[in-house]
Amino acid sequence: SASADWKTFDKSKMYMADLESGLHYLLRVEVATHETLEGDELRVFKDLITILYKLFPGRPHVARLLETLQDWLVSMPLDEIPYNAILDLVNNKMQISGIHLTSRLQWVGCQGSEPGLRGYPCSLWKLFHTLTVQAAAQPNALANTALEDNHGAVLQTMRRYIKHFFGCRDCAGHFESMAKESMDEVKTLNEAVLWLWKKHNKVNKRLAGAASEDPRSPKVDWPTPDMCPACHGEVKGVHEWNEDEVLRFLNQHYGSQDILLRYAD
Ligand code: FAD
């Protein structure tokens, strides 16, 4: 049963196992539903790999995989790439030393109390929160790439990835309408971090009580007062976020200093 293999974890921490399992799923399952990548899809995929290569706070064997993928995609003059060529690289068919990505789904902070709950969508949120925070911490990280000088690069790439690849098509439609409303107003790297936080809470609010909610992980305004007391304030009896404190909290929570390796292969 699910509870027999329940992994003890700390809700206030990030686990590398979630991020790596998510990357595995993205690269070997989700993108695999497209037999060839061309046009917009290929452009999105290339931009996502650039961002992951520059900003994913990964362990050396994963960082090398992302670097190899990036180098290969940049050197590739083709207008279309068969997915199988990407898979060969992800599986390291060339046996380049020091490259490896787990092929196991090992959810920890994203584990569900029943099969079908949480898992990949949870890890995708965590991945993009992590990337927006990393982008703000390293403002020059995308220099000399096609995404240089674009403070919205992570969000825009997320938007395009969700639109073209995310398996949950309803989710993609909802996310696109939120993006259309206000993503273009994001002007700084910190605003990008806060934009994604705010929209994620909007999704939480909409999904509270829905069938997809895991009772062990209720959808709430996040971070909760016990995680970040200073994030919460009140003006004339009405709840108000302290966004400076929220930003501080997100930088710490999704910063690379604090990602736990427990349960990671
Ligand atoms: P998640 O919402 O997946 O959150 C993962 C973790 O992120 C939480 O455990 C918490 O640690 C942290 N977190 C929570 N809130 C925030 C926040 N505001 N800022 C930063 N970190 C936070 N499902 C649907 O049924 N309908 C939809 O329309 C839909 N749209 C989606 C759109 C996107 C882009 C994505 C990635 C997912 C979407 N989903 C949708 C899935 C849904 O949002 C959840 O991912 C899924 O239900 C699993 O929920 P969860 O309990 O693991 O928490």
Q: What strand order characterises the main sheet?
A: 1-6
Q: Work out the count of structural domains.
A: 1
Instruction: Find the CATH topology.
Output: Four Helix Bundle (Hemerythrin (Met), subunit A)
Number of H/I helices: 9
- Hetero groups bound? flavin-adenine dinucleotide
CATH class: Mainly Alpha
Q: In percent terms, what proportion of residues is strand?
A: 5-15%
Shape: globular
What's the total number of strands? Answer: 6
Mean pLDDT: 96
- The unreliable regions are none
List the secondary-structure elements in sequence, H or E: EHEHHEHHHHHEEHE
Examine the secondary-structure arrangement and name the CATH architecture.
Up-down Bundle
Q: Report Rg.
A: 18 Å
- Based on secondary structure, the structural category is mainly alpha
Kindly report the name of the CATH homologous superfamily: ERV/ALR sulfhydryl oxidase domain
Biggest beta sheet summary: 2 strands, parallel
Q: Helix amount, in percent? A: 40-55%
Q: Quote the distance from N terminus to C terminus.
A: 22 Å
